[in-house]
Amino acid sequence: MPRPRPDGTGLRRLNALDPDGALAALLRCCGSREWAGQLADRRPYPDPEALLAAADRAFAGLPMAGLDEALAAESPPRPPAGTHGPGAPAARTALNAAYAAYEQRFRHAFVICLDGCREEEALDQILFGIRMRLGNGPDEERSVTTEQLRRVVHGRLRRLAT
To answer: Cα–Cα distance between 86 and 151 in angstroms, integer?
Structure first.
């Protein structure tokens, strides 16, 4: 992802891309080709809010196969770079075990939006989120995951559009 530019050149650049370039840029935000294609086709966007609204509309109409495609493109959140110290190996082991249990149960990567979370709290947030969500049934977890993915994608789109 490119670094945010406060002058809005990112959105102008997205609007000016050829269709294949726009599709590629949007697929880096969400791995569903249907979702990315809808957003690419609806350009130009007058402002980031219009882009986010279009993203939400595309998410709302995304069939199960499109959501599965988006989830297949996701990787679980990486532990924060600042995870060091004597407890770090145990924390990483716990995190890897939690990811494996989640993926075995739900058959896709764990997705959680960490926007606004302080780096030193991220590992705890991830572990807590996995532990809580492992108790969900498949339908409930699909709903929670979809909302978390939507929030993650919003953050990626904001960075793309600024």
So the answer is: 33
Can you tell me the distance from the alpha carbon of 55 to that of 65, in angstroms, rounded to the nearest whole number? Answer: 17
Closest CA to 49 of 154, 150, 132, 122: 154
pLDDT digits (tens, 9 = 90+) for 113-152: 999 998 888 888 999 999 999 999 999 999 999 999 999 9
pTM across the whole model: 0.89
Distances (CA, A) of 76 to 7, 10, 30, 87, 149: 31, 26, 14, 21, 11
b/e map 105-125, b = 16+ CB within 10 Å: ebebbbbbbbeebeeeebbeb
The pair phi, psi for residue 116, each rounded to 5°, is 85, -5
